[in-house]
Design goal:
Elements (H helix, E strand, L loop, with lengths): L1 H16 L51 E5 L3 E5 L8 E6 L3 E8 L4 E4 L10 E4 L3 E3 L8 E3 L16 E7 L2 E6 L17 E9 L2 E9 L3 E5 L9 E8 L2 E7 L7
Parallel strand pairs: 4-8
Antiparallel strand pairs: 1-4, 1-7, 2-3, 4-5, 5-6, 9-10, 10-13, 11-12, 11-14, 14-15
């Protein structure tokens, strides 16, 4: 009995020595909750869009056109001619302060058409607008040349024929068939047998010139820079009127 008790106690002692030690309770690292403030959201402010300020469209006011205008001669003596330039045939001369009535103007120069009535054979004629004192702006007169006025037609000579029209840079050369005017058909020794009318561009301005020449050829300048198309024509001139015109085949600017 004692031996049995001894063995029991010994067995219990050995069993107690082999029991595992109690494991320590694991330490759990508690995660620290870090508060991160939300990033401030910037609401874009409305950008004021600058729209272009509407501008008023400029409109060209039409120049008022008048049919007639009173005037008087400001020169000591003013020659009135059959065409709008100094090289046309002479009709009459007007004295200083002579009252006149303007009834038109030429397109491209400052010559004006005056009413010359009172005789059955009277003919309206042209004077240089620089030598008249008008009761208004002569640029408001209606354009009467080249379309509204007919220069007198020669009963003896017809039109010439253009032979050539060439350009070298800004210079144009025109030649035509010679027409021999008999000595008795000259108005005077200073009369040109040919009148060349040119509407051309010079220094950016579109002008009308009436050129006189004794020879069947002429040179003149025509430049770029004008909206209107340049053109011209040649008349034969004798004391009774004009033959033609012969239109110039205009050489274009390259």
């Amino acid at each position: 009995m004692k031996i049995k008790l001894y063995l029991t106690l010994l067995l219990f002692s050995l069993t107690s020595c082999n029991l595992p030690a109690s494991s320590p309770t694991p330490q759990v690292d508690s995660a620290t909750a870090t508060f991160t403030p939300p990033q401030a959201t910037t609401v874009p402010s409305e950008t004021a869009t600058n729209f272009p300020t509407p501008t008023e469209t400029s409109t060209t006011t039409p120049v008022p056109v008048v049919d007639t205008m009173k005037a008087k001669v400001s020169a000591d003596k003013l020659v009135c001619r059959y065409g709008p330039g100094a090289n046309y045939l002479y009709l009459i001369a007007l004295n200083h302060n002579t009252p006149i009535r303007l009834i038109g103007r030429a397109d491209g120069n400052n010559w004006v058409l005056i009413e010359n009535s009172g005789r059955p054979d009277s003919h309206d004629c042209w004077v240089n607008g620089e030598y008249v004192q008008a009761e208004g702006d002569i640029s408001h007169l209606k354009v009467m040349y080249p379309d509204g006025y007919q220069i007198p037609v020669s009963p003896y000579y017809g039109a010439t024929t253009i032979l050539n029209a060439t350009r070298e840079g800004d210079e144009i050369t025109v030649s035509w068939v010679e027409v021999i005017i008999s000595p008795g058909k000259y108005e005077n020794e200073n009369m040109f047998p040919y009148i060349v009318e040119v509407w051309h561009c010079v220094n950016g301005e579109f002008i009308f010139e009436t050129l006189g020449t004794t020879y069947p050829a002429i040179k003149f300048i025509d430049q770029s820079g004008c909206e209107k198309a340049s053109h011209g024509r040649v008349y034969v001139q004798e004391k009774h009127g004009y033959g033609g015109p012969a239109d110039i085949p205009w050489p274009n600017i390259p």
